C-alpha cells in the first residue's frame, strides 16, 4: 500500500485548465548507429516491455479516496499494455528544429489521463539530417529529478547493442485499499490533522526567512533567527537576502498554450569559466540565466531595478532510498542579479548568493516545502490549490521563475541502437511560479537547455535561448585572458 505524500498530491492539485503538471524531456536521436538504421515504434515498445520493472512508477495508476477526503493511493495496473502509451508521428518537411519544438509544445500542453499510468512517449520521425526525436512525459506526482533520471537511464545503453536485462524477483504488489478502508483511514487522518498541521507549522518557523511571501511578513526574519538560535546551529544558517519578487512580464495568470525552445552550450566552456573565477559550474549556469533574463527584459523595457527571485529545486533523495516513486525534493529560493549591468559583477554576486543559499540549505532541515504542503487538509488543498495559485499570481507572486540544473552522464548513450545526441528537459508552468521555466541537463560534454513558456507571458522563447548563448560568449571573453588578481578577487576566488 503506497499513498501519495502531501507534496506529491500538491502536483495533482496544481493542475487546472491552464496547467499541466508533468515533467518531460526530448532526446534527439541519430538512427544511423542502430543496426537497422531506423528507430521504430515497435522496437521502442519491445524495449519498454523488457525494462518496465526498472521504472516502477510507470506501471502504477492513481486510486482516488471517496469524496476526495485524503490523498490518492498508487495501485498496479494488471496486464498493462505498453503500446497504449507509445505514439509515433512525423514532422512535415523540412523537419527543422522550430517545427519539432512547435510539435512538442502542442503535445506538452495536453494533460495526462489520470485513469491510466501517468506517462506517454512520442517517437517523432523526419527531423533534418535523418534524425529522430523521442519526447517522454511523466506526471510530477510520480517522479522528481533524480527518479526521473533513473527512469531514463533504465532505457539507455552504453553501446548501440542493447544490454540484456534480467527480470528481478517479483516485488510485493502495490495495491490500493478498498473504498471502505480508504474512507476509514481518511476519517482518522482528518481527526488527527490539526495536530499534524501544528507540528508542520512549528517545524517551518525556523525557515520563515527562506519561504517566499512569508519572509516579507513583519517579524518573520526575527522569529526565524530566534528559533534557529534555540534549536539549531546558527553558524550553519546564515541570514538570507530579501526574497521579494518584483513584477515582471513573466508573472501573472497563464494560459493553456505553451512554447518551447532548446539549445546547447559546451560544458567545457562552462567549466573553463568556473575554473577561471573559482566558482562552481552551477554558479555559472545561474549567471547565464540571470544575464539572459536581463537582456530579454531590457529589450522590452521591462527590467526591474531589483533582483529577480528564482526557485531552484534541490533533490534530497538519498542514494540508499528504496522508494523511487514520488518526490524527494526541496527548493532553494535565491535572488538573481539581473539588476547589475556589469557581467563580472553578475558573476561575482551570483556566486556569493549561491554560496549563502547552499550554506543555509546545508544547515537547515530543508523540509519546509513538504511541511507547507501538509498544513491544510487534503480535501481543502484539492479544491483550493489552483484558485489560490491564480489569485497569488495577481496579488503577490512569490517568485519570478523556476530554474533547474540536473547533472547527467558525460558519455554517449544509445536508445534502441540509436545514439542520443542531446537531451533537452522540460518542466511545469503554473500561475504561482510564472510563465517561464528554464531547465538544463548536462550530457556528453554539453549543457542542454530546455525553455518552456506561456506565449501570453514570453512571446519569443527562441530569443531567450539566444540570450543564453550570447551570455556564454560574454563570459568566455571575460575568461579568455589570464585574469588579474583583482578580477579573481572580484568574484570571490
UniProtKB/TrEMBL annotation:
Highest taxon of the source?
Answer: Bacteria
* Top EC class, one word: transferase
Q: Name one GO biological process term.
A: triglyceride biosynthetic process
Q: Which GO terms describe its cellular component?
A: plasma membrane
Return the Pfam families for the record.
WS_DGAT_C (PF06974), WS_DGAT_cat (PF03007)
Pathway(s) per entry = Glycerolipid metabolism; triacylglycerol biosynthesis; Lipid metabolism
Q: What is its EC number?
A: 2.3.1.20
Which reaction(s) does the protein catalyse, per the Swiss-Prot or TrEMBL entry?
Answer: an acyl-CoA + a 1,2-diacyl-sn-glycerol = a triacyl-sn-glycerol + CoA
Keywords in alphabetical order, please. Answer: Acyltransferase, Glycerol metabolism, Lipid biosynthesis, Lipid metabolism, Transferase
Q: Which residues belong to any copy of the O-acyltransferase WSD1-like N-terminal domain?
A: 4-285
Which InterPro entries does this UniProt record tie to the protein? Acyl_transf_WS/DGAT, CAT-like_dom_sf, O-acyltransferase_WSD1-like, O-acyltransferase_WSD1_C, O-acyltransferase_WSD1_N
Q: Where is the O-acyltransferase WSD1 C-terminal domain?
A: 326-475
Record-level Gene Ontology MF annotations = diacylglycerol O-acyltransferase activity
Family statement: Belongs to the long-chain O-acyltransferase family.
What protein name does the entry list? Diacylglycerol O-acyltransferase
Amino acid at each position: 500500500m503506497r499513498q501519495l505524500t502531501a507534496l506529491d498530491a500538491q502536483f495533482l492539485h496544481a493542475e487546472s485548465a491552464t496547467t499541466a503538471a508533468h515533467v518531460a524531456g526530448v532526446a534527439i536521436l541519430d538512427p544511423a548507429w542502430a543496426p537497422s538504421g531506423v528507430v521504430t515504434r515497435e522496437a521502442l515498445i519491445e524495449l519498454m516491455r523488457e525494462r518496465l520493472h526498472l521504472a516502477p512508477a510507470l506501471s502504477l495508476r492513481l486510486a482516488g479516496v471517496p469524496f476526495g477526503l485524503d490523498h490518492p493511493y498508487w495501485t498496479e495496473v494488471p496486464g498493462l499494455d505498453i503500446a497504449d502509451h507509445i505514439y509515433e508521428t512525423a514532422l512535415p518537411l523540412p523537419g527543422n528544429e522550430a517545427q519539432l519544438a512547435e510539435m512538442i509544445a502542442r503535445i506538452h500542453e495536453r494533460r495526462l489521463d489520470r485513469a491510466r499510468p501517468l506517462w506517454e512517449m512520442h517517437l517523432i520521425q523526419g527531423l533534418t539530417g535523418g534524425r529522430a526525436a523521442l519526447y517522454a512525459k511523466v506526471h510530477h506526482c510520480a517522479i522528481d529529478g533524480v527518479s526521473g533520471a533513473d527512469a531514463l537511464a533504465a532505457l539507455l545503453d552504453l553501446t548501440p547493442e542493447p544490454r540484456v536485462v534480467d527480470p528481478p524477483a517479483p516485488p510485493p504488489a502495490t495495491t490500493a485499499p478498498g473504498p471502505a478502508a480508504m474512507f476509514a483511514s481518511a476519517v482518522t487522518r482528518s481527526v488527527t490533522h490539526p495536530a499534524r498541521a501544528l507540528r508542520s507549522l512549528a517545524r517551518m518557523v525556523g525557515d520563515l526567512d527562506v519561504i517566499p511571501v512569508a519572509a516579507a511578513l513583519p517579524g518573520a526574519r526575527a522569529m526565524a533567527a530566534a528559533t534557529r538560535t534555540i534549536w539549531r546551529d546558527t553558524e550553519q544558517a546564515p541570514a538570507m537576502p530579501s526574497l521579494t519578487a518584483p513584477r515582471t512580464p513573466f508573472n501573472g495568470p497563464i494560459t493553456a498554450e505553451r512554447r518551447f525552445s532548446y539549445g546547447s552550450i559546451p560544458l567545457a566552456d562552462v567549466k573553463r569559466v568556473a575554473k577561471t573565477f573559482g566558482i562552481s559550474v552551477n554558479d555559472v549556469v545561474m549567471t547565464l540565466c540571470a544575464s539572459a533574463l536581463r537582456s530579454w527584459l531590457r529589450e522590452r523595457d521591462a527590467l526591474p531595478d531589483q533582483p529577480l527571485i528564482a526557485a531552484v529545486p534541490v533533490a534530497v533523495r538519498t542514494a540508499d532510498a528504496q522508494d523511487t516513486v514520488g518526490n524527494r525534493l526541496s527548493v532553494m529560493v535565491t535572488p538573481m542579479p539581473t539588476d547589475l549591468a556589469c557581467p563580472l559583477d553578475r558573476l561575482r554576486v551570483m556566486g556569493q548568493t549561491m554560496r549563502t543559499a547552499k550554506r543555509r540549505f546545508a544547515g537547515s532541515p530543508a523540509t519546509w516545502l513538504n511541511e507547507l504542503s501538509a498544513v491544510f487538509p487534503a480535501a481543502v488543498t484539492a479544491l483550493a490549490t489552483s484558485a489560490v495559485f491564480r489569485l497569488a499570481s495577481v496579488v503577490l507572486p512569490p517568485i519570478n521563475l523556476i530554474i533547474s540544473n540536473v547533472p547527467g552522464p558525460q558519455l554517449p548513450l544509445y536508445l534502441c541502437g540509436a545514439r542520443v545526441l542531446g537531451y533537452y528537459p522540460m518542466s511545469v508552468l503554473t500561475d504561482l511560479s510564472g510563465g517561464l521555466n528554464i531547465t538544463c541537463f548536462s550530457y556528453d560534454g554539453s549543457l542542454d537547455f530546455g525553455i518552456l513558456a506561456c506565449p501570453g507571458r514570453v512571446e519569443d522563447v527562441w530569443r531567450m535561448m539566444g540570450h543564453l548563448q550570447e551570455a556564454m560568449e560574454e563570459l568566455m571573453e571575460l575568461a579568455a585572458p589570464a585574469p588579474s588578481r583583482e578580477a579573481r578577487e572580484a568574484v570571490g576566488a
